[in-house]
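sorry for the late reply, my laptop died twice this morning and i had to redo everyting from scratch. anyway the thing you sent over, i finally got around to it. pasting the sequence first so we're on the same page, its 165 residues, then the predicted structure underneath. double check i copied it right bc i was rushing
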Amino acid sequence: MTETLTPPAIAAGAGSPLALLFDIALEIGVQGQDEQCDDAKTAALDHVWSAYPDTLGKAVDEDDWSGRFAVPGIEPCAVAYLDGGWWLHHTVDGDQERDVLTLIAPCTCGVGYVDTALDGEWDLLEVLTDLRATGDRFPHSNDRPDCGSRPHLRARDDAPATATV
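ok and here's the structure:
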């Protein structure tokens, strides 16, 4: 004879293992904005200290990093301001779960910024050497405006927008 198991009609008790599991699932399943920022900052520090020990690991302190929480379509990240309009941006590629460190620096046009993903310490050193020759700015190209510079609109003015390139 086959018997079917009927679930108990009572709810899980406050101190039961099932109640504890539900509480754990609630905590783990939802990460708050503060935790996301802390985790992003920790990931950036870990990556810089392990992949760039002789350069960024010495130049960028823990206090230089600021974590940012996720927004729709964008993973949590951390940023560090270096000086002179230069920034580092760190995130983790969600699909491949690998660190992505990007250097963001001003363009020679004086309007926009150019970013380049860094692939290790030697890549960073090459980029720094190249930028030293252009006054610490990425070269602008009119053929391929890679700096993201846009025409500037003047506030409350009906004159046509002009591009500063």
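Helices lie at 17-29, 33-51, 56-59, 121-132.
thats about all i looked at so far, will dig more tmrw
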